[in-house]
Amino acid sequence: xxxxxxxxxxxxxxxxxxxxxxxxxxxxxxxxxxxxxxxxxxxxxxxxxxxxxxxxxxxxxxxxxxxxxxxxxxxxxxxxxxxxxxxxxxxxxxxxxxxxxxxxxxxxxxxxxxxxxxxxxxxxxxxxxxxx
Length: 132
Prior knowledge:
By secondary structure, this protein is mainly alpha-helical. It has helices at about 10-30, 35-55, 55-60, 65-100.
């Protein structure tokens, strides 16, 4: 169930604190390499960020002059970008490891391999156009 929409500065502050904590947890689990815990932490982060996004924009504009809030949001934005980059690097490393462990040499078990311009399969049906 979704959290209530933050309407007061203290409510938004609490929601932003949840985002910061979840972001730190995602970063820690990403460094540990524990996939199960990372997935749960990402789900927690997603929920906290959704709660933050439910803020009435008019209310947020009224408190946008708060320098501390701006600084915290900037840190969260940078943290999310860093986590995204680290996840992409981890995915690339895993992909390279899989290519080393399970190389694909292009040989097929049955039939011919792919031709120069794609699979060498014959069409079983033909298309005709009907006109009146």
